[in-house]
Amino acid sequence: MKLVYIASPLRGDSTSAEDYGKNIRQAAEYCEKACSLGVIAFAPHLYFTQFYNDTIAEEREKGLEMGLAMLEKCEELWVMGNSISRGMRGEIAYAKELGIPIHHVQDPHDIEYYPVSADNNALLGRHSCVPDSREQDYTGKVLVMNFDTLRPEYRSRQHQLWIANGGFGCSPTARGRRIFVTSLYDGEQTSFYRQDFAGILKSEVWEEVKNQYDFALSGQGMPGCNAEMPQEGMEP
Does residue 228 surpass a pLDDT of 80? Predict the structure, then answer.
C-alpha cells in the first residue's frame, strides 16, 4: 500500500491546550479517513508527541526533524486544509526539494476530497463540478465519477470522466437511477447509478484534464468539443 504523509497543524499560531487537542483529534480523523481508502497514513504529530513535548523548543525541533526523515520515505504529501503552519511550510518545502507529489486537500473533513489516485494527478470531486449540478439533468453532459466507485488501480482522472447518454437517472427527480454512459477516455459504454457521480464537470477543469491524457472522445458539452454520441440507452 502507498505510504502517505499527512500534514496538518499541531499548534499553528495558537498555544492553547484546547486548540492543541482539537488539532490532534483532527489529525487522527484525517488518518482514519485516508487509511479507509487503502493507503497507509502517517501524521508525525500523532506519533512523536507521544514522547516529545511540543511545548519544549528542543523536543519540538527533534520531532520536526524526525518528521522530515519520515517524509523521505513517503510517496505523497497531503496538505490538509488551508491553514498552513510553520511546520507544514517546512514539510511542503522539503517535499518539493525531494520531488514528492504534493496534494492539497481543500476540505479534509469530507472524504470525497481525498486524492487517492493511481498517478500523481489529484482526483476529481465535487469541487471539480458545476455548483448545484447534482440537481440538474445529466443528459449529454460530461460527468465526474466519484473516485470510490472505481477500483484502486483505476483511480485517476481520465477514468472519472463519462458522457451521459440517457437513462432515467439523468433526471434528478425520476424514480429510476440508472444512467447509460460512455467513457471519454476509451469509449467504453456501460451504466452506473446517479449516486456514482459527483456532478457535471466544470469547463475550466476539462481544459486542464484534456492536456494531461489522451482521450478517445473529446467530450460533448465542453467548449470546442464535437464528440459523436452513441445511441441513447433505455432504462430497463
Answer: no
Quote the CA–CA distance of 31 and 6 in Å, as a whole number. 7
pLDDT in tens, 125-172: 888 899 999 999 999 999 999 887 888 788 899 999 999 999 999 999
How would DSSP label each residue in the chain? --EEEEE--SSTT---HHHHHHHHHHHHHHHHHHHHTT-EEE-HHHHGGGTS-TTSHHHHHHHHHHHHHHHTT-SEEEEESS---HHHHHHHHHHHHHT--EEEES-TTSGGG----SSSSPPP-GGGB-TTGGGS--TT-EEEEPGGGS-GGG-SGGGGEEEEEE-GGGSSS-S--EEEEEETTT--EEEEEGGGEEEEBPHHHHHHHTTTS--SS--TTSTT--PPPPPPP---
